Hints:
- The longest helix is centred in the N-terminal third of the chain and has 19 residues, at 22-40.
- Helix 7 (138-149) packs across helix 9 (165-182) and helix 8 (154-161) packs across helix 9 (165-182).
- The chain has helices spanning 10-18, 22-40, 47-63, 74-90, 111-116, 120-134, 138-149, 154-161, 165-182, 189-200.
- The two termini are 31 Å apart.
- By secondary structure, it is an all-alpha fold.
- The chain is built from 10 helices and no strands.
- It has 2 domains: 10-99, RNA polymerase sigma factor, region 2, helix turn helix motif (Rna Polymerase Sigma Factor, Chain: A, Orthogonal Bundle); 106-200, Arc Repressor Mutant, subunit A, CATH 1.10.10.
Amino acid sequence: MAEFTKHIDDALLWNRFRSGDEHAYTELARRYYRTLVQYGQRFTPNMQVIEDTIQDLLVHLWLHRATINDTPSVKFYLIKSFRHRMIKTIKPMHDEIELTDQCNHLSLESSREEIWIQGESDLALKKQVRNALEQLPSRQQEVIYLRFFQNLMPEEIALLLSINPQSVSNIIQRALTNLRGLWQSIPSFTILFYSFCQTLS
């Protein structure tokens, strides 16, 4: 079969993968590997653990491809499956730590980020955004990351974190309020923040 391109829809790739198409499986892995690595860094800085967990997930998906259900969002399915495996992996290492406090570092890596942030003023904005986000409580960091950097809907985030959608909205509002407090010197904070996140989506 021919190689798939980045323009191929996720749903088509998913169905082809479930039918045993190795090229579709490889493209899905390539397409979301970086996303899963970045999300894994919310839980641990140990890259070996992150990569092993991703590989474990990918192997599981391939071995069980014939029984895996269709999904309206491949991205959400992979993030949810990865999060479940990551928590199971790191829980024995952090018995004294609440699971909601394990996303303690927000990495803002993105090829689009490197394209958009070019001048000195933009680099300063990038640093301010990162520093402000890292001062948020870890639950707020994770919700902000999922909503604005991974473009998950509040309903999806609620399912992922086992909370209700209203709680997600409340967490986002508290996070934005906290960020405004940290960025008191920037009157147009909200516009800047949303614009910054859009460049990474």
